[in-house]
Write a structure and sequence with these properties.
Helices cover 39% and strands 28% of the residues. It is of the alpha+beta class and 199 residues long.
């Protein structure tokens, strides 16, 4: 099937072929096109054709979840900080699956800092703090403030809402005013948190 409506094409396709002037430029799964950053022609087409607000995008399923996070690591400048509200331990690592190690290596190499307020934590968080304490600044918050989503506020003005049930879903909001509001919320919660301690 040939389609120029990107929302329709990506919602029904198992495989997408991108052509330009009669030549195949890229062939792959739909989520790979949403995350395209290497081919400027495809990136521009996706950006120009995306249905809905250019400031809000939704990614669903484990493959899109993994691709989104790996692409995020490529795009963030070295030394960036992610403020995370409501970290949920293994609930986040599970959909990353085997891609988590690649994500972690990229994050460490680029010195991306996680400032995390979490209500669930385990062995992985303890290992992160032990191995790279300067990149992993964690605090524990009361379960009473548990949110249905994990909220990430990136230093580039992007807010990432992550919902894990029934399928992993990311809602990306590119709006510095909303990011600032969530950062204020982070700061308020930080005041009532306790530093994470390795046991």
């Amino acid at each position: 099937m040939v389609a120029h409506d990107i929302d329709f094409a990506l919602s029904i396709a198992d495989k997408v072929i991108f052509m330009d002037k009669g030549a195949i430029i890229k062939e792959g799964k739909p989520y790979e096109f949403l995350m395209e950053s290497e081919n400027s022609r495809i990136s521009k087409f996706i950006q120009d054709a995306f249905l809905g607000s250019p400031d809000i995008r939704i990614y669903t399923g484990s493959e899109e979840f993994q691709a989104y996070h790996l692409n995020l690591m490529k795009q963030l400048p070295a030394g960036s900080t992610a403020h995370i509200i409501g970290a949920v331990g293994d609930t986040w690592y599970t959909p990353m699956g085997e891609k988590y190690q690649e994500y972690l290596e990229s994050r460490i190499k680029k010195k991306i800092i996680w400032k995390m307020l979490m209500y669930e934590h385990g062995a992985e968080e303890a290992q992160l703090v032990k191995n790279n304490p300067q990149l992993n600044i964690f605090h524990v918050i009361s379960r009473d403030v548990k949110n249905m989503a994990n909220i990430n506020i990136m230093s580039n003005g992007i807010v990432i809402l992550q919902i894990f049930n029934p399928i992993p879903t990311i809602i990306e909001i590119k709006n510095p005013i909303i990011a600032k509001s969530y950062l204020n919320y982070y700061d308020d919660l930080l005041k009532s948190s306790k530093p994470f301690e390795i046991k």
